[in-house]
Specification:
heterodimer; A: about 250 residues; alpha/beta; Rossmann fold; eight-stranded mixed sheet; two-stranded antiparallel ribbon; 11 helices; 10 strands; globular; B: about 140 residues; alpha+beta; hypothetical protein PF0899 fold; 2 domains; three-stranded mixed sheet; 4 helices; elongated; binds adenosine-5'-diphosphate; binds magnesium ion; binds zinc ion
């Protein structure tokens, strides 16, 4: 029986990471990448050592949000992610550049596995993982391989997004994976629909981030992003919520 | 030098397998080395030997022999079914390096020589696979 050696080494690669938070949610376009990026920045500014791993291989975005370019990992018994804005940052874009990289499910799984097997993270308080949308091959593989992961689930207040998010929550429950809670993003008006829909799941609604008309102007500039309301709201959610367990501070 | 991280993966798998199978000693690991990943086989071999010494749990790997069998990379277009090999792809040095780190990145730089499609399959020779692990109980 042919064996893939890479599977055995994932846990070793993640051994020095205290907490691994996977930012998930059903659909694309609901703010997973924005929240992953802001979460990594926020925790880093609070004094934690933080890594950010972009695993949405079909549509990597966190490098755009944080304005990361002109850096490349070092090769040293694996690949060592460069530190940008105080964050150890890893993404497939180092290797694909701007080229479109059409990957089938098996190719995505293979590339994910390669990244997990060869990336040498430092000692991290947090590794934030930007997840691909959906509950297909890629998400299932990541959930299976990142045994340490806790899930932070993003939704919007739209019934359309919630429909898929409920499936994600149900799947995580069935797979017995810990869920930190749900963040409602792009909130436009007061409504209890998210709260109502989440009742069945025993998953806390951690808070909401309002829709920010001017956010786009700050995309690509980490410092300006941190000045936006969205960043302030996320920081509040993270600091206030006992599930993030930050009270010990740094 | 990311050969080291893959070598570590091979040794970890061998040790895991020996625990599962109750082996007292691992005598041989047979590997397939896919061309697409362009491993430096000398460094890879050196890394395997070094790691076998340092990571060994109770000299399980003392007598271990490593056999490596190279495997040519062959691509097949999913659109027009043309098959071709790595020698015909003409990548730049940077592209080679990117493919070395993550062979799937080939889909960013390689196109079907006949119809230009990026939708192709690597039918063999992607990277490192363990064919067999032999040992004594
Ligand atoms: N709270 C918000 N207010 C305004 N725009 C937002 C907000 N959250 C995300 N966006 C924008 O919406 C788009 C999709 O967000 P993104 O994080 O890429 O979603 P996903 O990763 O879930 O596909 C991006 O342009 C992002 O800047
Ligand atoms: Mg995204
Ligand atoms: Zn073709």
């Amino acid at each position: 029986m042919v064996m893939d050696p890479r599977l055995s080494v994932i846990d070793t690669r993640l051994a020095r990471i205290k907490r691994l938070i996977a930012v998930s949610g059903g659909k694309g376009g609901i703010g997973k990448s924005l929240i992953s990026s802001l979460l990594a920045l926020t925790l880093s500014r609070l004094g934690y050592t933080v890594g950010l791993l972009d695993l949405d291989l079909s549509a990597p975005s966190t490098h755009v949000i944080l304005g990361i370019e002109g850096v490349y990992p070092k090769e040293e018994r694996g690949i060592v992610p460069p530190e940008v804005h105080g964050i150890e940052f890893m993404s497939i874009v180092y290797f694909t550049g701007d080229e479109p990289t059409p990957l089938r499910g098996t190719d995505i799984s293979n590339a994910l596995l390669e990244l997990l097997a060869i990336t040498q993270w430092g000692s991290l308080d947090f590794l934030i993982v930007d997840m691909p949308p959906g509950i297909g091959d890629a998400s299932l593989d990541i959930i299976r391989w990142l045994r340490k992961a806790e899930f932070l689930v993003v939704t919007t207040g739209s019934k359309v997004a919630l429909e898929t998010v409920k499936k994600v929550l149900k799947m995580l429950n069935e797979l017995n994976r810990p869920i930190i809670g749900v963040i409602e993003n792009m909130k436009l008006r007061d409504s209890s629909v998210v709260k109502e829909e989440l009742k069945k799941f025993e998953v806390p609604l951690l808070g909401a981030i309002e829709f920010d008309m001017n956010l786009e102007d700050s995309i690509g500039d980490a410092n300006r992003l941190l000045e936006r309301d969205a960043a302030a709201r996320l920081k509040e959610i993270v600091m206030r919520n006992p599930r993030f367990n930050l009270e010990q501070g740094r | 030098m990311h050969e080291w991280s893959l070598a570590e993966a091979v040794i970890a798998t061998a040790l895991e397998e020996s625990r599962k199978e109750g082996l007292e000693e691992i005598t041989e690991i047979k590997l397939k080395i896919g061309e697409l990943q362009q491993l430096d086989v000398e460094i890879f071999k050196f890394a395997l030997d070094e790691l076998a010494e340092t990571l060994d749990e109770g000299s399980l790997l003392k007598e271990m022999k490593i056999k490596m069998e190279p495997e040519k990379a062959i691509f097949k277009c999913r659109v027009c079914e043309k098959e071709w090999d790595f020698g015909e792809t003409g990548l730049s040095e940077e592209e080679y390096e990117a493919v070395h780190f993550a062979p799937e990145v080939a889909h960013a730089y390689i196109r079907c020589p006949s119809c230009k499609s990026p939708d192709f399959e690597v039918i063999q020779g992607r990277g490192v696979l363990i064919q067999t692990i032999k040992g004594k109980r």
